[in-house]
Design a protein that fits this description.
- Keywords: Ion channel, Ion transport, Kinase, Phosphoprotein, Transferase, Transport.
- One of its GO terms (molecular function) is phosphorelay sensor kinase activity.
- One of its GO terms (cellular component) is plasma membrane.
- This is histidine kinase.
- The structure is a single chain.
- With 156 residues, the protein is of the alpha+beta class.
- The protein has 3 helices and 7 strands.
- The strands form 2 sheets. It has a 5-stranded mixed sheet with strand order 2-4-5-7-6.
- Helix 1 crosses helix 2.
- The radius of gyration is 15 Å and the shape is globular.
- The two termini are 22 Å apart.
- Magnesium ion binds next to helix 2.
Length: 156
């Protein structure tokens, strides 16, 4: 399938909004037309998990920013939150199956699989995924995904 990333992200954000409470989900999507060849159901599953992570591991009232843009023949998607963050030593480990960051406060329920599935999906498409913490706000986490654009994508 060929998905248009901007409209797909907009639809996915609408689906998680009811779970976001009063966290503000902001979109920074360009008006470009970015096409990526992916399985739509899998793409949604992965993106919904990333947004659910941003919601689950942050306090109410904080901001979540979803950005998508073109970098040459790549589509870059980032999801930034202002939440608990991930310790530097765990930034790679969170992508391994079943790993969950130990916290002093009780963590919300989860299986520790979402990011491992995300990495498997992205790498199978020849893309990359990584985590950065703190984010530009000085706290929280940024997850960045790069996926190769489909050849049909109109030139910038
Ligand atoms: P599930 O499989 O249900 O998604 P999970 O959320 O624990 O469970 P992952 O999505 O793989 O599993 O995330 C792994 C761990 O990484 C989480 O348990 C959490 O400790 C940490 N983590 C992931 N995203 C964030 C985030 N946005 N902010 C802070 N910590 C995060
Ligand atoms: Mg998760």
């Amino acid at each position: 399938q060929t998905l248009e990333i901007m409209e797909t992200l907009t639809a996915i954000i609408q689906r998680v909004r009811p779970r976001a409470g009063n966290r503000h989900i902001e979109r920074h999507l360009g008006d470009g037309h970015l096409l990526v060849s992916v399985d739509a159901a899998m793409f949604e599953l992965v993106l919904i998990n990333l947004l659910d992570n941003a919601i689950l591991y942050s306090e109410v009232g904080t901001r979540i920013t979803v950005e998508a843009c073109r970098n040459e023949n790549w589509c870059t998607i980032s999801i930034a939150d202002e939440g608990w963050g991930i310790p530097e030593a765990d930034l790679e480990r969170v992508f391994t199956r079943f790993y969950r960051v130990p916290r002093s406060e009780p963590s919300p329920r989860g299986s520790g699989l979402g990011l491992a599935i995300a990495r498997g999906f992205v790498e199978a498409l020849g893309g990359r995924i990584g985590a950065q913490s703190p984010g530009p706000s000085g706290r929280g986490t940024v997850i960045t995904i790069s996926l190769p654009l489909a050849e049909e994508t109109p030139p910038p």
